[in-house]
Specification:
This is Glycoside hydrolase family 65. By secondary structure, the chain is α+β, with helices and mostly antiparallel strands. It folds into three domains: about 240 residues, Beta-galactosidase, Chain A, domain 5 (Distorted Sandwich); about 35 residues, no CATH class; about 375 residues, Alpha/alpha barrel (Glycosyltransferase). It contains 17 helices and 31 strands. Strands 2-11-12-13-14-23-20-19-18 form a nine-stranded antiparallel sheet. A four-stranded antiparallel sheet has the order 10-15-22-21. α7 runs antiparallel to α8, α7 runs parallel beside α10 and α12 packs antiparallel against α13.
Length: about 700
């Protein structure tokens, strides 16, 4: 179990329209954006969690209306980042079985690309995230039936983010019900305080149902599978008047659950994988439900969990950075502040674990629960920029653990060092598809390690990540090829750039990736110098003779091998990733005048409808901020005439087919950190916000970007 640590709250930056100001009233900022629901809203279930484990509830405070929420919005589930399942592999499928060969630069290399055959399907779908039990109200006794939305009225649900506590009050079946819930910061425990005359009248109980898994055939938001009761086992290890201990197994997947109460319980088991819990008497039910992958979780005390959560969140909000827009006359300021506060809460309960998060975090399953390493920067960089580097550091432990796998991938492809896998699960095995040719994930571990060093510039930090940085740099350097005709090093082919529309077999020299290669190799060289080592001659040769960023007619294009970005409207959809060379990155090889013309062209003529994701808007805002265009930065950050830039009452950024898309939240926080905290060389405070008086920005605790 990883202990959560927090930095002391020492304001590094405190500005208000350029002047020093009193510290931000952080509790007031958070409190004014605590979500409150007064009706059933399937797009906005609210969650409590600890970054490794989370519980998402409907308006009843439990998961009482799962079908309604799944059908019309966001699933209500219980999830843990450590809970995985893998189907048997009697055929012994391996990645080489699905290779497709690419020939370039005198070499033929196989990449696992074929998903249309059984081996490809199995390797893509396994391992997959495994859901924990569904916990909701159920009718009992005579006349019992399924609870439906019409049974729930007079909704008053409030999430207190300062305490990590969800309070829900409704009329259920015409009777009052109140539920308070929270999650322990130190164990995967849900604590519940429930009160209702329905309990005293034996009309309802709390139903804990253990699913077989997710229904196969859907890699986004799959429903829970209840159709195979004989395919898994829920074994009662202990049952007493106050405790229930259950071990759940499916093939080699396993977890244990402990339900505990200080008061006597009535526990029944109406089906093999279903338990109904009620108080023996009275209208109050206090429970803790704890989970563990290994062993059996200890019974927890309800009051203790609520107290620990309250202390944990108080430390969280008082640590790191904060921002306050109160007093601004721009009508968009309040909405941006709301998104910022909710995104901090959501990323803290969903991301920053030792197992990198999927794009839907712990709310539901997307891409079989696997994580995309190109998203790790958007998921975790903001933690360090907001002065909470321990979250970023935990995620980087996965890269350290799987470094041997990345080395093996590099060796298989004739490369040195480490070649990072794109879509993968806990063990690091790559998933087949177009994924293995994506390359913009490669420099991320170096960049994140550098952010951690800037937050804690010690030899200990250098030693902790030196192997990760150097092996990644070796892999990057060996991915470059010498072009004798042009007397330069080039990147690709084959590769798949961040703007995912170009032919992978012929793609060469994408603008963003070239700049990121230069930046990654330069950071690695600086790490050598900090450690008293000379610069690596091979890295330096490649860095200094790297191809120039491709441009045409005074604007950057996506890729040199197909420079039609501004000639062909079909090349102006998907991510305008070339902007990241000066935005997320500090601009290695960038001409600022050319980049400004490029930004203006994107804002004027890009296809904002076809495939713009939630992280594109903050990404573009970062470029505008670095180009001293704060009006444009704010405008695109809050752009409302395109898809995928809305935020629900719960704070989630839904994207097409994805009710939860956490890269949107993470990128928003990264952009605001840049706009408020600045970057190396920024000439004024809060440089990403307008100076016309419409924005009053009070910021403290931010770390600058390079």
């Amino acid at each position: 179990m990883t202990k959560r640590l927090y930095l002391a709250c020492v304001p590094l930056l405190a500005v208000m329209a350029g002047a020093h100001a009193a510290p931000i009233d952080r509790q007031a900022v958070v409190a004014r954006h605590n979500p409150q629901l007064t009706a059933i809203d399937p797009m906005s279930p609210l969650s409590v969690g600890n970054g490794r484990f989370a519980f998402t509830a409907d308006v009843t405070g439990l998961q009482t209306l799962p079908d309604h929420y799944h059908t019309h919005g966001t699933p209500t589930e219980t999830g843990a980042r450590w809970s995985w399942h893998e189907h048997a592999n009697p055929q012994g499928y391996k990645l080489s079985d699905v290779n497709r060969e690419y020939t370039a630069w005198g070499r033929t290399v196989g990449y696992p690309m074929n998903t249309k055959i059984p081996a490809g399907q199995w390797l893509r779908e396994n391992p997959h995230i495994h859901p924990l039990p569904q916990i909701g109200f159920v009718m009992t006794g005579a006349g019992a039936r399924t609870i439906v939305p019409a049974d729930v009225t007079q909704v008053d649900q409030r999430l207190d983010m300062w305490q990590g506590r969800l309070d829900s009050r409704v009329q259920l079946l015409g009777q009052p019900v109140s539920v308070s819930s929270t999650v322990s910061p130190g164990s995967d425990t849900l604590a519940l305080r429930i009160r209702s005359p329905l309990l005293a009248g034996k009309r309802v109980a709390v139903r804990i149902a253990l699913p077989y898994g997710y229904r196969p055939g859907a890699h986004h938001n799959p429903p829970l599978d209840w159709s195979q009761p004989d395919g898994h086992v829920s074994k009662v290890l202990e049952r007493s008047g106050r405790t229930l201990l259950v071990e759940h197994t499916r093939d080699t997947a396993r977890y244990a659950m402990t339900v505990a109460s200080a008061a006597p319980l009535t526990i029944t088991q109406p089906a093999a994988h279903v338990f109904e819990i009620a108080p023996q008497s009275g209208e109050t039910l206090e429970l803790t439900v704890s989970f563990a992958k290994d062993g059996t979780p200890a019974a927890q005390d309800v009051a203790g969990v609520f107290a620990a959560s309250r202390a944990h969140w108080d430390r969280f909000w008082r640590s790191g950075a904060a921002i306050d827009f109160q007093g601004s006359t721009d009508p968009r300021a309040a909405e941006l502040e709301r998104r910022v506060v909710l995104s901090q809460y959501l990323t803290a309960i969903q991301l920053g674990d030792e197992m990198p998060a999927s794009e839907s975090g712990l709310t539901t399953s997307t891409w079989y629960g696997k994580h995309h390493t190109e998203m790790v920067w958007w998921h975790t960089a903001h933690f360090t920029l907001w002065g909470r580097p321990e979250f970023t550091a935990r995620t980087l432990t996965w890269f350290q653990r799987t470094l041997p796998v990345a080395r093996a991938v590099a060796a298989e492809r004739g490369l040195k060092g480490a070649r990072w896998m794109k879509m993968t699960g806990p063990g690091g095995r790559e998933s087949p598809g177009g994924n293995p040719l994506i390359i913009w994930n490669q420099p991320h571990p170096i960049h994140l390690a550098e952010l951690l060093y800037r937050a804690n510039p010690t030899k200990e930090t250098l030693e902790r990540y030196r192997e990760l940085v150097f092996d990644t740099a070796d892999g990057m350097a060996s991915m470059l090829n010498w072009d004798d005709k042009g007397q330069r090093y080039v990147l690709g082919p084959p590769l798949w750039i961040a703007q995912e529309i170009y032919d992978q077999a012929t793609s060469m020299n994408p603008t963003y990736e070239l700049s990121y290669w230069a930046r990654g190799l330069e950071i690695a060289q600086q790490w050598r110098e900090r450690l008293g080592m000379p610069r690596d001659a091979g890295w330096e040769e490649r860095r200094t003779r790297l191809s120039k960023l491709p441009q045409k007619d005074g604007k950057y294009v996506a890729i040199e091998s197909n420079p039609d970005t501004w000639d062909n409207v079909d090349s102006r959809h998907d991510h305008p990733s070339f902007l990241m060379a000066l935005g997320q990155l500090p601009g290695d090889g960038v001409d600022r005048k050319v980049m400004r013309s490029t930004l203006d062209a994107v804002l004027a003529s890009w296809d904002w409808q076809t495939k713009i994701w939630g992280w594109d808007y903050p990404m573009i805002a970062m470029t505008a901020a670095r180009l001293d265009a704060p009006d444009l930065a704010v405008g695109v950050l809050l752009k409302s005439d395109g898809p995928n830039n809305g935020y629900t009452k719960a704070g989630h950024n839904p994207n097409k087919r994805l009710p939860v898309y956490l890269p949107g939240n993470g990128s928003l926080l990264a952009a605001v950190a840049l706009m408020a905290g600045g970057w190396d060389g920024a000439t004024r405070t809060t440089p990403g916000f307008p100076t016309d008086g419409s924005w009053v920005v009070k910021a403290e605790g931010f770390n600058k970007l390079p």
